[in-house]
Amino acid sequence: MISLPRLKLYWCWTDDHHEDWFVVARRAAEAKRFFQEYEGYDKDQVLAEVAFVLPEALQDDEHRGWPTREMLEACGAKILRWETPRVIELDGMRWTEGMLEHQILQVTDDQFERRGRGRPNRTGRSSTS
Q1: Distances (CA, A) of 101 to 56, 104, 106, 113
Q2: Which of 61, 55, 75 is nearest to 25 (CA)?
Q3: C-alpha distances in Å from residue 30, one per residue of 34, 73, 113, 118
Q4: Stretch 44-67: mean pLDDT, rounded?
Q5: What percentage of the chain exceeds 70 in pLDDT?
Q6: Cβ(23)–Cβ(34) below 8 Å
Q7: What's the pTM value of the predicted model, to 2 decimals?
């Protein structure tokens, strides 16, 4: 019987650091492909490194792709911030999500606020507002 490599939590990042986040995969190449497809990067723009080997209870292919909060917590992650940009601590290391989504939400809130509609995404004011 052929045994598959264990599922791991890979940290995926690019030079612009706009979308950095975790991907669950069996190999770094698989994590990179997933990240490229979902975040719109070209081949060779994404780097991936193993951050954590998933526990036995999570060694199921249904867990491949973006990790859930529950999955990260099952790996022992301490959630320091779950709103964008997410920040977790795992095995003594701090990991921070890329800032692009947060920047988009912040600009959106600036526009809502200029129209007298508050800040529905609860972001702080940008330096350009």
Answers
A1: 32, 5, 9, 18
A2: 61
A3: 6, 23, 42, 41
A4: 95
A5: 91
A6: yes
A7: 0.80
Confidence check: pLDDT of 61 > 60: yes
Is residue 108 situated within a structural domain? no
The Cα 99–Cα 86 span in angstroms is: 9
Give the number of domains in the chain: 1
Q: Are 25 and 8 contacting, i.e. CB atoms less than 8 angstroms apart?
A: yes
Encoding tokens for residue 113? 């606020």
Residue 98 has pLDDT above 70, yes or no: yes
Could you tell me if residue 16 is inside a domain? Answer: yes
Beta carbons within 8 Å of 42's beta carbon, 6+ residues apart: 36
DSSP secondary structure of 94-126: EEE--SHHHHHHHHHHHHHHHTT---TT-PPPP
- Taking the C-alpha atoms of residue 67 and residue 36, their distance in angstroms, rounded to an integer, is 16
Does any domain span residue 30? yes
Tell me the two tokens of residue 96.
């921070």
Q: Domain for residue 19, yes or no?
A: yes
Residue 24: give the domain boundaries: 8-98
Task: Tell me the average pLDDT of the chain.
Answer: 89
Average pLDDT of span 95-120: 80
